[in-house]
Amino acid sequence: MNPDISRMARSLYEWLWQHEFWLPPGITWEDMQESEDVHYPQPRDLLLSIPFALILVVVRCAFERAIALPLSTKLGVRDKQRPKAQPNPVLETFYSTRCKNPEEGELIRLSKQCDLPVRKVERWFRRRRNMDRPSLSKKFCEACWRFTFYIISFFTGLAVLYDKPWLWDHRECWTGYPQQPLQPSLFWYYMLELSFYWSLVFTLPFDVKRKDFKEQIVHHAATIFLISFSYCGNYIRIGTLVLVIHDASDCFLEPTKIFNYMKWKKTCDSLFMIFSAVFLISRLVVYPYTVLYNTYYYSMEIFQPFFGYYFVNTLLIILQLLHVFWSCLIIHMVYKFILQGTMEKDMRSDTEESDKDEEREKIREKEKNGTTYFSKVTSNGHIQRNGAEPLSSRAHLANGHVKER
């Protein structure tokens, strides 16, 4: 390696790991030396989360194929048959490189290039967009996997923390900080959660994309940074509280989706109300008091502010802003539920477009021309409803209306 590059890398490494960044005033890395009986978090441990994340991706693929997909078939989850867009190189190139939902002017220009009516070009884009939308079985499999993980991680967290003093007395999060030995159960719990969020990042291009896709990216990034930084700075006690609080509501979100895909309306509505209550209480009440107030106020009883203090609080506040964003969506859906008596479709999900829009446009055009079609028109011009006897004895079409004789 070039000596200058090596020297720059070493300087950057030394600058990044200055104890002033990571440890409270008066504490240096020498004070964090390990012994045979005492082990502290080491930044290099985080590298284990990458291969573990890849293992989780493999486990997920096997789970969805061997368990979730057959389960969806047995539970009656059926994919809707979608008409496919006919192959068209010009439209496909525009769709892939320019825009998936062209404006009216672009539709006219494309129709001239392809020598097709504007309506057919519009229908081609509608069907092409539907082809890219995930199938119902794919959504079901993804929800099953996440539900399985959240249940495992939530109860793992409770099993790890139930006998820990900081779960019941939040001031204990800072007793002896930062010289708090790392217990093996906490290490593996951290690795499980960090590996899962890395696996979500790896599968992000293939997962179901919803309207809050950008917020999901910010959430995953903030979570990974928070878990990693809290591990390196030995904020593991407060980190475990954050993880358990988040998993609590997620355990109800995924089964709500599953029953929604199964068309079990009443069960879905009941679970949604339970999820809403748990989410709003855990994210808007428990999290601010147990985590934000804890890190902002109780920690100051032990040490003076330093860079790590400000940084970890910034990440926690970013998470809280995301909580507020999602809480607004949930409150809106609960409001609609109270008014309408049924749960509104997930606001984060895209609505599948239908060719019925085009059919309605055709009907309106025919009505303008003075022609109205019922369910069946006989060959001799008389009207017949669903196999009933002809109505010629009492009615005929006159300017598009039914007239009694």
TrEMBL record:
**Keyword flag Lyase:** no
Q: Name one Pfam family in it.
A: Homeodomain
User: Which residues fall in a compositionally biased region of kind Polar residues?
Assistant: 370-383
- A cellular component annotation (GO) from this entry: endoplasmic reticulum membrane
Q: Where are the transmembrane segments?
A: 143-162, 187-206, 271-290, 310-335
Gene3D superfamilies associated with the record: Homeodomain-like
UniProt keyword annotations, A-Z: DNA-binding, Endoplasmic reticulum, Homeobox, Lipid biosynthesis, Lipid metabolism, Membrane, Nucleus, Transferase, Transmembrane, Transmembrane helix
The record's listing under InterPro entries reads: HD, Homeodomain-like_sf, Lag1/Lac1-like, TLC-dom
**Per its record, what are the GO molecular function terms?**
DNA binding; sphingosine N-acyltransferase activity
Q: How does it sit in the membrane?
A: Multi-pass membrane protein
Q: Which reaction does it catalyse?
A: sphinganine + octadecanoyl-CoA = N-(octadecanoyl)-sphinganine + CoA + H(+)
Name under which the protein is recorded: Ceramide synthase 4-like
Gene symbol here is LOC113989713
